[in-house]
Each structure stands twice: as structure tokens, then as C-alpha cells.
């Protein structure tokens, strides 16, 4: 049976006070935890073979955001990662490039220079990543710096403390302010679902971010476990699907963290196709925050083309 589509009216006055926003979010249908887990588990059993698998692998590669977010990041590491993003398999020019490279704001200019003319986007985390705990002025300065240096996408983190305390208005207002600071850049809002405790909170945070202007909703920073589980991604896909049905505005989804194999990536593509709509099977609307999965995708791609796997040291380790 197809999933039920809910249309949730949201008028501007809903966000006028924390009480009205709380009433709206707590009025969303509760998540059937057993049902969503069973649905995700069932979809995870779907198999894709031969030509369809080859198409799925190339699509998954095109959806990857290659990421380096470590304190030891250097300009050289960003350049090396950018080279891999543009040409994931130097021995096979038919291999597609990834969607974007994601770095800290101070390294955006390096990535922009390295990726000029490649078609690979540059994303930057901002807003006191990964904690989200900083004054709004600092978060906005972080965002404006990244955009000024050429970032086409901003990955912000919500203040989970404010959200869990029920201060939804603060979270909403911060997303609105960061959205404005982004200008023409796309905004991905990271919910850090591993800290939200319940599926109901994942649904509420998804709708809150969507209504505040997010272009994408993203599961995780990759720093907290659990990260991108299939049930959580399913709930977020339901939210963007239902919002599109109600408004005609399509919002993207990005699961991040814990996606390590080609099988994991394909399970997510099946989820998109079955829960949302094939229109989301595009890097414009679905991304994989999974740098570690790229090598496995490339190995599986070579296996389909040649009949044998390359050696484990054939690709760079990032």
C-alpha cells in the first residue's frame, strides 16, 4: 500500500510565538515506531541487479558529498580531496564526479579554486559545527564568510539543546536568519537525529526546518552515533514528500554518517524511490554524506565493468 500523505497547513502566524509553533509541531501525527522500522527493513531487502545496479552506482557517486571536517585539515588535503571529487577514478574517465566537497569555512576558497570548471560544488559547514552552540551573530558571520569565499551550499546545525527544551521559536528564527545570510547559496539544515531521542522529534525537527526555509534537511554531522539510519531517513523523506504535496516546493534530504558500502547506498536510493518519488533521485534533491562509501562504489563499478575487483589499495584513502 502507498504511504498516507498528510497536508499540514502552516500559516506565517504559526511562528509568531513559541506556544503556537509548539502547538503546530505537537499536532503532527505521531510516528508508529514499529511500523516505520518494519517498513524500512522491508525496503532494505529489495535487490537491484545488472544494468539497473550499474545505473544506481553511478547515481550514488553523483550524490556523494566528499567531506573533510577534521582539526588537522590542511590546504593540501583539501586540494587532494577536490582532485578525487572531480575524477574519482583517474583510470576511467567515464566515472562521474561527485556532487560536492564539504569543508570548514576557512578552507572554502581553497576548494573553490581547486574545483573551478569541474562541475563539483563547494559546501561548507557553518553555525558552530558540530555543536551549534554559539551566539547567533557568530553563526551568521561564519555563514557569510563561507558564502563570500564561494560556497554554493551551507550545512548548518540546529541548536539541539533549544529544540529538546521546547524552544522551537529560537531554532526556527535561527534557521530563518541563516537562510537569509546564505543569499543564493543553498541551505542544508542538520538535525543531528542521534541526539533527538525519538522518531516524533525527528518528524517535528524536519517540519520545523522545512518551514523555516531549508533547501535540504540532513540527518547528522557524522560526529554523533547513531547517524543516518534507514527509519530516520524514511521519516524525513515522508516530511519532504508531504510538504511538496501541500505546497509544490521540493526540499532535499541528505542522510550522513554510517553509509559505508554500495549496498547501504542502494538501500537509500530504494527508500527515496518508494517513499518519496523518483523525482528525488537526483543530486539536486538527495545527497549521501558518506565519504567512506565512494571507494566501495568505485570498486563495485569496476567489478561490473571488468568482472574482477581492483586491489584494496587501488583508490586513495581519504
UniProtKB/TrEMBL annotation:
Keywords linked to the UniProt accession: Lyase, Schiff base
UniProt pathway annotation: Carbohydrate degradation; 2-deoxy-D-ribose 1-phosphate degradation; D-glyceraldehyde 3-phosphate and acetaldehyde from 2-deoxy-alpha-D-ribose 1-phosphate: step 2/2
EC number: 4.1.2.4
GO cellular component: cytoplasm
UniProt superkingdom: Bacteria
Protein name: Deoxyribose-phosphate aldolase
GO biological process: one example: deoxyribonucleotide catabolic process
Reaction(s) this enzyme catalyzes, per UniProt: 2-deoxy-D-ribose 5-phosphate = D-glyceraldehyde 3-phosphate + acetaldehyde
Gene Ontology MF: a single term: deoxyribose-phosphate aldolase activity
Family assignment from sequence similarity: Belongs to the DeoC/FbaB aldolase family. DeoC type 2 subfamily.
Amino acid at each position: 500500500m502507498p504511504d498516507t500523505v498528510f497536508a499540514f497547513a502552516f500559516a506565517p502566524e504559526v511562528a509568531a510565538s513559541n506556544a503556537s509553533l509548539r502547538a503546530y509541531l505537537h499536532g503532527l501525527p505521531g510516528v508508529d515506531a514499529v511500523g516505520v522500522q518494519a517498513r524500512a527493513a522491508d525496503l532494505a531487502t529489495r535487490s537491484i541487479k545488472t544494468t539497473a545496479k550499474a545505473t544506481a552506482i553511478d547515481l550514488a557517486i553523483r550524490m556523494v558529498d566528499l567531506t573533510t571536517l577534521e582539526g588537522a585539515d590542511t590546504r593540501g588535503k583539501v586540494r587532494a580531496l577536490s582532485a578525487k571529487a572531480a575524477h574519482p577514478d583517474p583510470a576511467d574517465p567515464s566515472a562521474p564526479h561527485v556532487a560536492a566537497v564539504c569543508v570548514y569555512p576557512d578552507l572554502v576558497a581553497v576548494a573553490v579554486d581547486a574545483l573551478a570548471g569541474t562541475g563539483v560544488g563547494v559546501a561548507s559547514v557553518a553555525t558552530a559545527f558540530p555543536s551549534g552552540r554559539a551566539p547567533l551573530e557568530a553563526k551568521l558571520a561564519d555563514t557569510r564568510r563561507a558564502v563570500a569565499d564561494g560556497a554554493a551550499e551551507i550545512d548548518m546545525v540546529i541548536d539541539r539543546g533549544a529544540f529538546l527544551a521546547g524552544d522551537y521559536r529560537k531554532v526556527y528564527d535561527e534557521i530563518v536568519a541563516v537562510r537569509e545570510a546564505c543569499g543564493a547559496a543553498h541551505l542544508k539544515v542538520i538535525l543531528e537525529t542521534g541526539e533527538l531521542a525519538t522518531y516524533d522529534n525527528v518528524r517535528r525537527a524536519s517540519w520545523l526546518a522545512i518551514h523555516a526555509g531549508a533547501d535540504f534537511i540532513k540527518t547528522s554531522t557524522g560526529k554523533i552515533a547513531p547517524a543516518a539510519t534507514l527509519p530516520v531517513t524514511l521519516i524525513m523523506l515522508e516530511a519532504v514528500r508531504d510538504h511538496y504535496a501541500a505546497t509544490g516546493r521540493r526540499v532535499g534530504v541528505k542522510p550522513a554518517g554510517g553509509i559505508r558500502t554500495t549496498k547501504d547506498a542502494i538501500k537509500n536510493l530504494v527508500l527515496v524511490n518508494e517513499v518519496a518519488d523518483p523525482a528525488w533521485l537526483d543530486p539536486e534533491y538527495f545527497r549521501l554524506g558518506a565519504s567512506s562509501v565512494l571507494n566501495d562504489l568505485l570498486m563495485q563499478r569496476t567489478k561490473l565493468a571488468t568482472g574482477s575487483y581492483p586491489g584494496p589499495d587501488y583508490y586513495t584513502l581519504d
